[in-house]
Amino acid sequence: MKVWLISKHHFLQGLGIAFIHITAVKLFFKDFNPDSPHYKDLAIIIIIAAVIQLIAGRIYAYFEHHAKFEKLQKGVVASLILIALFFTISLWIDPKNKFLIFGLLTSYYLIYQISNLELWGVASLLFDVRQGKRLFSLISIGNIPAKIIGYFSYLVLYKVFAEIYFIKANTYQIMLAIGFLSFLGSYSVLNTIIKRLPLQKIDHHLHHHGSAESIMLKIFKSPFIFAMGVLSFCAYITFYPIEYKFLLDANNTEDIAAFIAVYYGVLHVISGLFQTFFSNRIIQKYGVLPSLMVLPVLLFLGSLLWLIFPQSFVFMKTTLTMSMLVMLIWVVVYYSLYNPLFLGLFQPLDAPSRLHGHTVVKGLINPLAMLVAGLIILGLNLYALEYKVISIIVLTIFSSLLFIFAVVRVNKQYTLSLQQGIQSKFFRGDRFVVVDQKHIHIIEKRLQSDFPADIIYSLDVLHNVDIKRYKKLLIHHLTSVHPDVQMYCLQKISEFPGLIDGETIIKIANESDVDQIRKIAVELYCRTAEFDQDIVNSFMESENVIVRKAALTGLIKRGDLESVVLAGQQLLGLMYSDVPEHQIQALEIIGDLGIRSYYKPVLTALKSDNEEVRNKGIEISAEIANPKLLTDLLIILYQRPNSQLIRMALAKMGEPALDELENIILKDPPVPVMKSIIRICEKVSNKRSAEILVGALEYPNTLIQNDAASALNAIKFQADSDNFNLWYRQSEELLDRIYNYIEFLRTFEKDGYEKMVSAMWIEVDSLCVRLFNYLSFIYDHSLIQRSKNILFFNNPGNKANALETLDQQLPGKLSRRLIPIVENPEELIIEVTKAYTSAEIVNHIVVSGLQRFNRWTLAIAIQNCPKTNIPEIGPYLFSSSIILHDTAVERVKQLNKGNAILDKRLLGDKINDSLYQKIQSKLEHEQSTLLTIEKVIALKGTSLFSNIPENLLIDIAEVLQVDEIKKGDVLFNTGDTGNCMYIIYEGVIRIHSGSTVFAILNARDFFGEFALLDTQPRSATATADEDSLLLKLNQDIFYELLTDDKEFAKGFLKTLTQRLRDQNEKLMKLEAS
Q: What is the pLDDT of residue 965?
């Protein structure tokens, strides 16, 4: 019933549109002065029609949100009736009125637009996503017979009944009258649809957005609708130049109306046949992306042939013939395949989004594309008339390429849209529990879903219920249209030898367009089936790298001598090739096999001069975990201590790696290497690695000590009872240091050393965290850590419980000293009496160095050093730590009062002439735009990093790039790929899109922060309004820091969480107001 009514409605509207179209074209080319520049008039009509469509689209969008949907649709069809009636009567009275003829062709485009808005708006609310994908092409067929009848009717009226004077003289009025009656009939059908069929209810208030949303979201409401808009824009900007060229060429025929009537009639006959017999099959077999690709690819190839070989074929010797060919491609593929699929893509969205998508695309984007195309065509006619034809062809080629790119983008967004739909439509909870036949029936129904995740989930559930049924379903779903489902079935079938025959596997391997599916199928065939040697050879010689690798992997896994020798020869050939890509392929095969004895090629890769090969060798080392690779991996560890690949590889080695790492610790390795050793031990997470971590607590660097304690906590280390007293004493020593630091803190506070106060608070917090880790090693780990998390994350509701837990768990002496620190440290500060001067404390910090204090505290202490402490600053001039080095250099320059020559007496008696010359050279030649310490302060001054302690910001600050930007310079444009964020140190940056300004940013503001987490096109342009000094943070460095420093990662996530909470509160207040 639904399909019949909507198809009937579509048929009647298509009939009316066809009659109006043929009439408008004939009158336009017939009754204008032959000397009139039709090419300009036609371009002007396209432009005017586009403007009218934009206005109509905005009016429709307004009433879609403010009027009842059913009334809106009736109003649209009523408008069609009135337009047709107006031109029928007007042209009957004055058939040669040029303004009416001009208006009729313009109105044709408007009628086409608003009828589409109405028709597909109704259809989108009648059908769900499954019905839409299956039925939209069927509904579209109803339009094709109507247009065939409409276009051929001209020949019937004007040619067959040429003897009847009344009909011949009034052909156009009669055709317009038929169009009017067709629209009248469609109104009646629409009434029936509204009365008999329930339309989905829509609530536009569900899609309320805050005022701070981007322009893109305000217009499109979702990235998917935006992508669909871009796709439609590319489609229509490709079409109008094609149609324009075709109409101009057709105007040279004896009777343009007869020619167009026959040509369009034939096109729609072909479209109907193509849609009936091929459209659904193509969509089902090849999926969304390839099906959408058909139209732009064919247009691109056709236009390219036209450009390169304009007269190479007998049937292309006139420009009209080629125009007809390209127009045929457009009409047939667009109406029979592209348009139904395009409309069906909106169906996963909820009802309001679906309607909004149709309205934006057909009411805004398509008219905009028409306007742009019209302006380009007019420009070509006015300024490039001699090259108009070639320009239109080039324009078609270029727009086809954009069209192809847009299809790829839409496919990605469509996949995301489906995933979101699954989350809201499928079962809630962790696992659907099957308890009876009714539940099995529910699961089996979900196997018919259009969502791959539904099918895979359902198969997983059935695996635990009915294994025989599960195996049958695996075979059945091998032919699924969803690649994810096919991959799942192939992977699971490989667990059941003999479940399917080799012929079936070969068929999948040869027919699939998905490389991963082909890989699984080829490997399965070579591994388990009684294979055909010729077929295996074809796989091994395939141009597809993935197929070749799969064949070799399958043969080696098969295990018989003949297969291993056959594959092994090729594998060695790849490994010892001079081509890096071949070496990488060989390494990937070795990784897939996971056989330890295949270590020699990996050893070769680790010594390669090619970085990609070397990285792949490190990665595969983790897969085969052969201890014979250790020596080379340890060499690379020293070269690249922050590499996650090297850490993972060494961790996979297990005990042999731990032996070597323990020896390295005895040699007092650099801090970066030591940090990596701690990460590796944490990944290994066994008794031996815990012993190494305990030893790392003796390393003379407070950062390493803190990291080692955190790693022990991560592996839930528990000390032996024999070592209880040792850990207890160390806990007491930490408490003594904490109280000592609080005393320092109070002294700095009284003397007005604000930065030193802040730095000492960081020291206190770090020691408290380490203290809690120590306590968890000798008391209940879970309770101590839970209390720590509550206390350090300021959860007031549970704070009392946490303190009580500590009081119960810890001995009285320990708890009485610890609880005041975490309960109310401010009061504790008041109770401590001053024992040292600030200068003495600063000197103590500088002398103690990294063994007792972190880099930030040391940098601030160096910055506050008096002149008498220059000898103590001396060693930091040669520090490997950037912040300590440049702070020391700058401080010595300050204390030297800017003199070019350093007063040697300031360095003390122990400085010899050689060392003095080195220091003098550093002071003369080292210049820095910004000190690292200044960068840290700038980071801390931003809301994004304000909750992260300065000591955790040093690693970011040391890699920040300083960019000096001149007034008027553009940092990035809308659409540029984002891979970094900026912090304004000085200057003014304007964030805008064209003349629309979104924000004016000043010092300590930041922008582009989302690019740190996700590489997406920039949503706006950034331009310097003044000379500016910017700090640039690249995404890859930021990712490295997130994975390398847990405390930094926690701090950053905490900041993001707080910002989200703040935004939610603002939204709630806005909604409440």
A: 92
H helices of 576-701, in order, are 580-593, 600-606, 611-624, 630-639, 644-653, 655-666, 671-684, 687-696
Give the tens place of pLDDT for each residue, 301-337.
888 877 776 554 444 445 677 778 888 888 888 878 8
Q: For residues 261 and 152, give the distance between their C-alpha atoms in angstroms, rounded to a whole number.
A: 6
For the ranges 48-57, 131-140, 448-457, 612-621, the lowest mean pLDDT is seen at 131-140
Q: In a 3-state reduction of DSSP, which class is residue 986?
A: strand
Residue 193 has pLDDT above 60, yes or no: yes
**Interatomic CA distance for residues 503 and 525, integer angstroms:** 9
Fold exhibited by the domain 437-675? Leucine-rich Repeat Variant (1.25.10)
> What is the signed CA dihedral for 606, 611, 615, 616, rounded to 10 degrees?
-80
Q: 123 or 503: which carries more pLDDT confidence?
A: 503
Q: Are 741 and 891 in contact (CB under 8 A)?
A: no
Distance of alpha carbon 142 from its chain centroid, rounded? 39
CA dist 683 and 706 (Å) reads 17
Architecture of domain 2-199+215-421: Up-down Bundle (1.20)
The predicted structure's pLDDT at residue 1000: 93
Whether the pLDDT of residue 925 is over 80: the answer is no
- CA torsion angle 127 129 133 135 (round to 10): -20
Distance CA 429, CA 409 (A): 32
747 closest CA partner among 810, 833, 663, 876: 833
Report the interhelical angle of 950-959 vs 1046-1072 (nearest 10°). 100
* Rounded alpha-carbon distances, angstroms, from residue 682 to 273, 610, 629, 677: 66, 30, 21, 9
pLDDT in tens, 763-809: 999 999 999 999 999 998 888 888 888 787 655 546 766 777 787 78
Q: Rounded distance, CA 488 to CA 495, Å? A: 11
For residue 969, the model assigns a pLDDT of: 94
CATH architecture type of domain 932-1072: Sandwich (2.60)
* Tokens describing residue 442: 């529910």
Q: Which percentage of the chain shows pLDDT scores above 70?
A: 81
Sign, Cα dihedral of 284, 285, 291, 295? negative
State how far the Cα of 905 lies from the Cα of 878, in Å rounded to an integer: 19
Query: Edge-to-edge strands of the sheet including 970-972?
Result: 970-972, 1021-1024, 989-993, 996-1001
Count the alpha carbons within 13 Å of 265 in the hemisphere toward its beta carbon: 17
Q: Per-residue confidence at 716, pLDDT binned at 50, 70, 90?
A: very high
pTM: 0.55
When computed from its CA atoms, the radius of gyration of the chain, rounded to whole angstroms, is 38
Which residues, in sequence order, are CB contacts of 210 under 8 Å at separation 6+? 1066, 1067, 1070
Same fold, 437-675 and 932-1072: no
Instruction: Tell me what pLDDT residue 133 has.
Output: 47
Would you say 152 and 286 are in contact if contact means Cβ atoms under 8 Å apart? no
Q: Domain segments of the chain: what residues?
A: 2-199+215-421, 437-675, 722-912, 932-1072
CA gap 339, 236 in Å, rounded: 12
The answer to whether 886 and 926 are in contact (CB under 8 A) is yes
